[in-house]
Structures are given as structure tokens and as C-alpha cells.
Amino acid sequence: MELGAFEQIAAVLAVCVAAGAMALLLRQPLIVGLLAAGIAVGPEVLGLVEATSEIELLAKIGISLLLFVVGLKLDVRLVSKLGPVALATGLGQVIFTSVVGYFIAIGLGFDTVPALYIAVALTFSSTIIIVKLLTDKGELEDLHGRIALGFLIVQDIVVVLAMIVITASGDATGDLAGEVVGVVVRALLLLGAVVLFGRYLATPLTHVLARSSELLVLGAVTWAISLAAISILLGFSEEVGAFLAGMSLASTPYREALSGRLSTLRDFLLVFFFIELGTLFELSSAIEQLNAAVIFSLFVLIGNPIIVLIIMGLMGYRKKVSFKAGLTVAQISEFSLILVALGVTQGQIDNDVVGLVTAVGLFTISASTYLITNSDAIYARIEPALRIFERKQPTASVDLDEEAPRPEYVVVGLGRFGSTVLQELVDSGDEVLGVDFNPRNVRSDAWVVPVIYGDAEDPDLASQIPLEQTRWVISTLRRLEPNLQLLSSLRRSGYQCRVAVAADDNDIAEELARAGADLVFRPLHEAASPLMDLVHGFDVPE
């Protein structure tokens, strides 16, 4: 029986869930399971799905949202703050890997254009996987974590430039010089329009949309897809437009909230990208290129960390910082797969390269997960051998004092009661951060402490708040569902300190206590008690 598109998608999603669960049981990133599932459902293995326009469309939307979210998180100030080390390691690793990788590919018998694609694909590391692993280990705020994030941002910029070049070269016919000039002009116009939008329109527009969380998310997705479509009309890929759309909203107060809200939708739609890759993957070709895949994987796993060790050692960093930062580039990225898929659509390479890069991705992502997770134990064993990468007197240091707050208390919900609680904490000399869903409250000039936009019903809210030094999170919201979601988000993020939540009656208070709240208070009761004490304190006249 021939399956229709809907039945195909249902069957494919079931395989993806099973493969994802297996990956998690094996302590692998979900992307490994999705890659395996995409290959399994393709025509080479189970044959559950063929290349269809529906899957292709969903894959493109997923990729666009991925790049949009990366653009949202692109903090150019971070690159400026880390300065020389971010640029030197980021560009140095890209140049080293692409040049050496090209000659390895040529030595293995690949033609010039496929060798170039393979070499460039090997240079990019997965920002998403690295940030997730470092966050889980609590090392994102460490020196090596911040440096790694800095040069991963540099890589993100390079990959977008590479996609622009690929798109331009694929469309170039006849007068190549004229095509290049036209591409540059269109790119400058697009970039200029995005910069103007980000500077003058993004913040006031998102303030209006943020009055409804659903409308804010819908507006962001619409902007991402619209700019992706405009990018296609200008001769670029949809990925470029989506990335620029994210960058244009990165300066708004809602970037973290948008990133959190879109992460689930992005991850769901990205499943179809891996499914589409599966329809292109040729198992027989990958088996034929197994030796090449192993060679390239070893080069990425060993060569990339070594070049980072060399560069950071020359710049005066200590060997442990250099080593742990270097491990973050010991894998290739989902962008590598996007890049070679783009090359196939441009007709510049064939599916053999996609199969090879997919195999390298599976090997390196799986191996690097273990390397990063066990980096301290590995370092302890090989520390003597790493001394050659360190100066006798290391000199480099980076001031990582953050402009962002590191509060002792976080108050969620700044209504009349919440504002009073926040002000009492401020008057006591405590470091306080306010979180509120109302954009007008966030923008108010009345606050003397930082106040950020956040929705308690956002499952990723805890990841958007600096909780490293927080002693209490206090929710003054009186609805049950937001408080339950907040408690769940805090526990999932590993937050171990205390949480106080509000309730209107005893039944809700008991349910919140069972959900893990350390303290449940009743605002109306708390406000009425002092009044009753005052009233009862007056003498009743005879």
C-alpha cells in the first residue's frame, strides 16, 4: 500500500522519536539520533519516505528558524569583548582546517570543487551542541566557555558568508564580474535595510507585539520567513535572510524570550531537514567512502583542538583553558550539513559528498560529546604532554565581569504586590532582578534595578535568567499554571536554591508545595494581617 504524505510523515516521526530516545539512552546528543533516523527512513534503508515538496518545504522552514535563533543570540559585543582571542582562534581554526582539509581531500582523490566543499564543511562546529554541553556542565560562564562562544560566533559569521558565496557562484552565468558586483550591491542593500530596521523599528515594534506572547512569536516567525523569502528574491538563500532577521531582533529586550519560545518549534521542524538528508543519503556510497570518513573524522577530532591549543598558547593562555576551549571544535556542525545540501541544490556537488559529510558528522559529534563531558578527567591524564602548548609564563587574561546582573533575589511578576516586594528588597540593600511579562513594566523608568522581559509559562524561562548567585526566586503570580511551569523550568535547569510562590487558597498552596515550592504565601492574606493587627491595636471607645 502506497503511503500518502501525511501517513509518511506520521511513520517518519515515529522512527525519529524511537531513534532520539535511543540516542539519549546512549548519552548522545539528539542530533545523532535524528541523523540516524533520517538515514533509516530514506530509500536506502527502510524506504518509508521519498523526496517530496512537503518535506522539502518543512525542512527549509526548520533551517530558517535555526538560523533565525542563532542570529537572535549573535552578540557582537561578546566578540568585541573577547577581542583578539575570539578572532584569532575563530579565523585561525577556519583557515587551518579548510586549507589542510582541502589537501587531504585532494590526496584522497576528490576533484577540486568537492574538495573545497568538504574542506569548508569541516571547519564549522556546532554552536547549539556546544552551548548545550557547556551549560549542562555549568562551564558556559568559565573562561574557556566564553572564549569558545566567542570563536563559535566568528564561525557563524563565516558560514553565512560562505553560503552567500555559494549562492552567488551557483547563479553566476556569463559575466561573472558583473554577477559578483550585483551580488555585493544586493547584499549591501539587504544588510543596510536590516541594520536600519534593527536600530529604529525592531524595539518599538516588538514592544507592541509583546502585549501577547502568541503574537510576539507569530510576528517573529513571520519576520524570519518574510526576510528569508526576500533573500531568495534577491538571489540569496533563505538561510541568509533568516539569519539577518534574527540579528535584527538581537538588540531587543525579547531576544531570550523569543529564542526560548521558538526552540521547540525549531527543533520539531529541523526533524524534516534530517529526513530530507536521509532521502539524499546513499548508504552504499558512504560505505565506499568509509576510509575517507574515518580520516576526516580523525583530522577534525585531533587537528582542530591542536590548532586552538597552538593559537591560544602563543597568545599566553594557560594550557587547561586552551585544551577545554579546543575540545569544543572537535566536531562538525549542522551548518556543515546545510552547506553541502546547499551545494547539491546549486548543482556544484553530488550526493556522495553529502553522504561523506553526514558520516563525518555522526562520528565527530558522537565522539566530541564524550570528550567535552569528560574533559577534566582527560586533561588530568594528558596534562604533561600539553605543556608544550603553554608559555613558561602565561600572560593572557580576560576580564569576564558581566554587565548583566547577578542577583541574589529574582522577583517574577511586577504588579502592585510584586513591585512592593522588589522595592523592599532594594531598600534592604540586596541585589535584585525583576522579571515581568508586561512590556510597559519592563520599559518603565521607575525601576532602580534591572528588569527583564519574561513569561513564567515559557518552559525555557530559567535559562534566560542569571541564577548563578541567586538565593531566592520569588513569584508573585497568583495563578496555579504559571507557578507550576516556573517550578518545573527551574528544576530542569538545575537551580538548587529556594523558590517562593504565591497562592490564593489552601488547595492551590498545597499543590504548589507538592510541586517543590519551598515557601507558598498568600498575598491577600499577608496584606490583610498587618491591617487587622493595627485595627485590633486601637482601643475601642466606651
Task: Please explain how this structure is put together.
With 542 residues, the protein is mainly alpha-helical. The chain folds into 2 domains: 58-266 and 283-345 and 376-389, Na+/H+ antiporter like fold (Up-down Bundle), CATH 1.20.1530.20; 409-537, 3-Layer(aba) Sandwich (Rossmann fold). The chain is built from 23 helices and 6 strands. The protein has a 6-stranded parallel β-sheet, sandwiched between helices. Helix 3 (53-72) packs across helix 10 (213-233). The longest helix has 34 residues, at 176-209. It is globular and about 95 Å long. The model has no long low-confidence stretch (mean pLDDT 81).
Helices, strands, pairings?
Layout: H1 5-25, H2 30-41, H3 53-72, H4 76-82, H5 84-107, H6 112-121, H7 127-137, H8 143-171, H9 176-209, H10 213-233, H11 238-249, H12 255-280, H13 283-288, H14 290-314, H15 319-326, H16 334-345, H17 351-373, H18 375-382, E1 409-412, H19 416-427, E2 432-436, H20 439-443, E3 451-453, E4 472-475, H21 480-492, E5 498-502, H22 506-514, E6 519-521, H23 523-537
Parallel strand pairs: 1-2, 1-4, 2-3, 4-5, 5-6
Feature tags:
542 residues, mainly alpha, Na+/H+ antiporter like fold, Rossmann fold, six-stranded parallel beta sheet
Measured between the Cα atoms of the first and last residue, the distance is 94 Å
Q: Quick one: CATH class of the largest domain? A: Mainly Alpha
Oligomerization status of the protein chains? single chain
Strand order of the largest sheet: 3-2-1-4-5-6
Sheet bearing the most strands, described?
Answer: 6 strands, parallel
Count the helices. How many? 23
pLDDT below 50 for ≥5 consecutive residues: which ranges? Answer: none
User: What is the average of the pLDDT values?
Assistant: 81
Structural class: mainly alpha
Radius of gyration: 26 Å
Number of domains: 2
Overall shape: it is globular
The CATH topology of the largest domain comes to Na+/H+ antiporter like fold
Helix content: 55-70%
Tell me which CATH architecture of the largest domain applies here: Up-down Bundle
Q: How many beta-strand elements?
A: 6
H/E series = HHHHHHHHHHHHHHHHHHEHEHEEHEHEH
Strand content: under 5%
